Amino acid sequence: MRGDVHILIVDDEAVMRDSLSAWLMEDGYEVEAVGDGAQALQRVREERWDVLLVDLKMPGMDGIEVLEKVKGYNEEIPVIIMTAYATVDSAVEAMKKGAYDYIVKPFNPEEIGLAIRKIIAYQDLVKENLYLRQELERKYQFKDIIGKSHKMQEVFALVKTVAKSNSTILIEGESGTGKELVARAIHNSSLRNEGPFVAVNCAALPENLLESELFGHERGAFTGAVSTKKGRFELANKGTLFLDEIGDISPKTQVDLLRVLEKFPAGRGDSLN
Q1: What DSSP string describes 11-27?
Q2: Strands 101-104 and 197-201, how do they pair?
Q3: Predicted TM-score of the model (pTM)
Q4: Fewer beta carbons within 10 angstroms: which end of the chain, N or C?
Q5: Domains detected in the chain
């Protein structure tokens, strides 16, 4: 198990504190135990905790009150309520107040161990997703595009400028010069960076399929349209739509695209790059 996981036990019974601490330390966790709610809240303010195990019935401050105060201080801390006096009402109240789980005493070590492993696995997943998202955003920041020439410095400066606007942007360049990389850098540096980045390779799709991809269709609109499909414009709502190789689309589709851009300019409502 992992020694970087810190668990705080809150129980007024010394026997329960000692036995539970021993079980969890055998699994490799860092464990501390306190005898009342006031000490628990003090330790929560002083240290980082991955899990709190809190007894429901304690003199002075009971487990529900400890739960409420902990969540008021840091709602992200998972709290497991333990009790030998289980009732439906207390279980419902604990869950409504934000308890992760409600475990009835007496319990075996595996039961409490399983609950903790689920919490740690979820926390690891959240951290991993956050890390991957930060790495993806970092990858496409304009400062990470390699280039020291005067011309590239001009590109970087232009990216900074246009990222602040809501204008439709035309990016020109030969194939392989990094137009999509620049588009992603603009998106991630803009106020729309929390929205989706949707890319469409216009040259890779035939005209009839491209129209369906861009604008979507309703069920039964044509033969084979068995369901309603959202277009890329709708999917890019509140984000950025990147149309690659736009010069290769047919004149008819260009006219349709122009009508959309005129009717829904990027500066109003939905944002399009």
Answers
A1: -S-HHHHHHHHHHHHHT
A2: unpaired
A3: 0.52
A4: N
A5: 6-136 (3.40.50.2300), 147-263 (3.40.50.300)
